[in-house]
């Protein structure tokens, strides 16, 4: 039996938050941050939920200006 994805709970929370907030990402920043942290913790574990998420996060960081 396949093992449960360690970040599935956070991925579902993102989907639920985005749907509830008409897909306005800024209103879901807390759950998105929780997903980032989960993906960092489970980086070596082939998480399907994290595949692409960490790549997206890294590419977004380079475009952010403070």
Could you give the distance between the termini?
46 Å
What portion of residues belong to β-strands? under 5%
CATH architecture group name: Orthogonal Bundle
Overall geometric form: elongated
Number of strands: 0
Query: What's the name of the CATH homologous superfamily?
Result: CytochromE C oxidase copper chaperone
Radius of gyration: 13 Å
CATH topology group: Helix Hairpins
Write down the domain tally. 1
**CATH class type:** Mainly Alpha
What's the helical proportion of residues?
Answer: 55-70%
**Major sheet:** none
H/E element order: HHH
Number of helical elements: 3
SSE-based structural type = mainly alpha
Output mean pLDDT.
82
Low-confidence stretches: 58-66
Pfam families: CMC4 (PF08991)
Keywords: Disulfide bond, Mitochondrion
Family: Belongs to the CMC4 family.
Protein name: Cx9C motif-containing protein 4
Question: What attributes characterize this protein structure?
Answer:
Cx9C motif-containing protein 4, mainly alpha, Cys_alpha_HP_mot_SF, 66 residues, mitochondrion, CMC4, disulfide bond
Please render the helix and strand layout as text.
Layout: H1 8-20, H2 29-41, H3 53-63
Helix pairs in contact: 1-2
